[in-house]
Design brief:
With about 650 residues, the protein is of the alpha/beta class. The chain contains 26 helices and 16 strands. It binds FE(4)-NI(1)-S(5) cluster. The site of FE(4)-NI(1)-S(5) cluster has 14 residues, from α12, α19 and α23.
């Protein structure tokens, strides 16, 4: 029996989702919203992080009456161990995603790339140069192999620290050396963390939490940055591109195919194949006007950034997309894919296709995707979707009209180009705008949706407020999609929202005040942008000095925890809209929220209200500006003729 979600209209911010939730209720289809309600009050011990099931003397839980587990572990140890394991989960997810891409690059280097090739030779050369691989007189294939082998070494290195750390400002590297948080190989960090959290190993909560930061850095500067670099090499470095977002991008006259998950390899092929004349003809023969490809979650961001494929929705809309009744097929890869999808799909004619052997779901059709026949595999899937179109029940179709235009595609390269032009691409104009105070600072707004809160509403309220207060926003993941749906990601509408200083800069250089930088793996682009600002000069010599803050308003995944940790360990304060499961240990929270400041110059803050979060962002930014000495008003002096001559200009 499906329980009606309490106040369904307060569960999501956008109208399209309201309409589809109402449809789900009338058709008796369960969603994350109903299941959230069915869960009732959530487990207190889980919320506090004090449940330990690491060994089988337990599970133990810490209460005032039983302050120690059977082995003697206290709340600090248990909470810190659980936290570190979550960070490992996030680091492993991003890094494994990156590894798949690196292996694809290696295959290209070995002449076995199948349908894949290096699309962006400039990006390949850029990454080679950054990693001291000579590029003169060498073929693309040679460079691809050398870089792939170097990146594979980043996973397997046992004793050397990550080479990618050298991409950070030197002072930043010194901070990691000093604090003992410079990570060695990514795989080693994950394995070592699992070892340290095994029963009877590391019991010092500070030591465990430092390892959490160290592991997260292996993700941020290793796995994630490698993932972005190789995606750019294989699929192209994004440049600004127009598209649309929200459920209204589904087209009732077409065969609708949704790609969902995170890895761009198959979705890129599907995007190419959807316009293949053979597929278009096949769709027309079935009575459709063509194939409409749309994306969900970060797979959406990958093909949005490079191909302008529209976004059907963010995390909380994956079930809703199926419930429109107009989706023939949802092709999923890895991460953030709800196991409920085949059950939801069973109410309609939709087929869920899983494509990787590491991610199967009962009820989905498994079609493992073969790289050497990628384009053909994509065409087979699309034809299957066309066949399903004939089974669509028009009585069950209701696609909301809502969709918003957007501009995405802001890689660091693209931002540099927009700021400085092709002859002198540079962050200088941005630094100058920050120093002069027209832009107060920069805020990264990232992360997911969570049915614990009204989806998108915190992200939207915070984004609008910060833009008004002259803060330039860098967004990724589902947060970026929320802004897009909210109409904040076109230069035109966003400029209307912006404060005078930010507006002036955006108009002058032609960028919107909210920059969509890609998927969550692309949070590495935010680190890269922060580094560029640092290198450009005038705003401090490590990242902790920058007037920059990160916010994860509606986060839910382990990846978001890892991202938060590598932001903090890279010197960027992070505000969480929802707390970690760490409240059972005052010491752990103190370490994350206070002592981290001493280590890295940054810490976590928990703020449930978006406007209070906006206040905090501005407070942190103004503090950084004060410390940099750029808040001092330049004295205005009237010059007489003698003064002018002395200027000698
Ligand atoms: Ni990020 Fe992207 Fe979205 Fe959250 Fe999931 S899609 S990797 S984890 S839910 S932002």
């Amino acid at each position: 029996m499906i329980k009606t979600p309490e106040n369904p209209h307060q569960r999501v911010a956008d109208k399209a989702s309201h309409e589809v939730i109402a449809k789900a209720m009338s058709e008796g289809v369960d969603t994350c919203f109903t299941r959230f309600d069915q869960q009732g009050k959530q487990c207190k011990f889980g919320v506090e992080g004090v449940c330990c099931k690491i060994c089988h003397m337990g599970p133990c839980k810490i209460t005032p009456r039983s302050p120690l587990g059977v082995c003697g572990a206290n709340a600090d140890t248990i909470v810190a161990r659980n936290f570190l394991r979550e960070v490992v989960g996030g680091a492993a997810a991003h890094s494994d995603h990156a590894r798949h891409l690196v292996l694809r690059l290696k295959a290209i280097g070995e002449g076995k790339g199948g349908d894949y090739e290096v699309k962006d030779v400039k990006a390949l050369k850029r990454s080679c140069t950054e990693h001291e691989i000579p590029t003169e007189n060498r073929t693309t294939q040679e460079l691809a192999l050398d870089l792939a082998m170097l990146f594979l070494g980043e996973f397997t290195s046992q004793e050397e620290t990550l080479k990618s750390l050298k991409l950070a400002p030197q002072k930043q590297q010194a901070v990691w050396e000093k604090t003992g948080t410079a990570p060695k190989g990514i795989d080693r960090m994950c394995v070592e963390s699992m070892h340290r959290t095994h029963m009877g190993v590391d019991h010092d909560y500070r030591n465990l939490l430092k390892q959490a930061y160290r592991t997260s850095l292996a993700d941020g500067w290793g796995g994630s940055r490698i993932g972005t670099m190789v995606s750019d090499i294989l699929f192209g470095t994004p440049v600004p591109i127009r598209s649309q977002a929200n459920l209204g991008v589904l087209d009732v006259k077409k065969v609708n195919v949704i790609v969902h998950g995170h890895e761009p390899a198959l979705s890129d092929m599907l995007a190419a194949a959807a316009n293949d004349p053979e597929i278009v003809a096949y769709a027309k023969a079935a009575g459709a006007e063509g194939v409409q490809l749309a994306g969900l979650c970060c797979t959406a961001n990958e093909i949005l950034m490079r191909r302008g494929v529209p976004v059907a929705g963010n995390f909380h809309q994956q079930e809703l997309a199926i419930i429109t009744g107009a989706v023939e097929m949802m092709v999923v890869d890895v991460q953030c894919v709800m196991p409920s999808l085949p059950t939801v799909a069973s109410h309609y004619h939709t087929e869920i296709i899983s494509t990787t052997n590491i991610a199967k779901t009962i009820g989905a059709t498994h079609m493992p995707f073969e790289a050497d026949k990628a384009y053909e595999s994509a065409k087979v899937m699309l034809k299957r979707a066309v066949d399903l179109f004939k089974k669509r029940d028009p009585a069950k179709v209701a696609v909301p009209a809502d969709k918003s235009p957007l501009v995405a595609g802001f890689s660091v390269e693209a931002i540099k180009y927009m700021l400085g032009g092709s002859f002198r691409p540079s962050f200088r104009p941005l630094n100058d705008a920050i120093i002069s105070g027209r832009i107060r600072g920069v805020c990264g707004i990232v992360g997911c949706n969570n049915p614990k809160t009204e989806a998108d509403s915190y992200i939207n309220a915070l984004s609008r407020e910060l833009v008004k207060r002259n803060v330039l926003l860098l967004q990724t993941g589902c947060a970026a999609q929320a802004s897009a749906k909210n109409g904040c990601m076109t230069p035109e509408t966003a400029l209307e929202l912006a404060g005078a200083g930010l507006r002036e800069v955006c108009e002058t250089v032609g960028i919107p005040p909210i920059l969509h930088m890609g998927s969550c793996v692309d949070n590495g682009r935010i680190l890269e942008a922060a580094t560029e600002i640092c290198f450009e000069g005038g705003l401090g010599d490590d990242l902790s000095k920058l007037p920059a803050v990160g916010v994860a308003p509606e986060w839910m995944s382990e990846k978001a925890i890892t991202i938060g940790c590598y932001f903090v360990a890279s010197g960027c304060d992070v505000i969480l809209g929802l707390p970690f499961h760490t409240s059972g240990s005052a010491n752990v929270n103190k370490f994350l929220q206070e002592e981290s400041k001493e280590l890295f110059g940054a810490a976590f803050y928990e703020i449930a209200d978006p406007l209070a979060a906006a206040d905090k962002v501005c407070e942190l930014i103004e503090q950084a500006r004060e410390n940099l000495g750029i808040n001092k008003k330049a004295e205005r002096k009237l010059l007489d003729m003698k003064d002018r001559r002395a200027l000698n200009v």
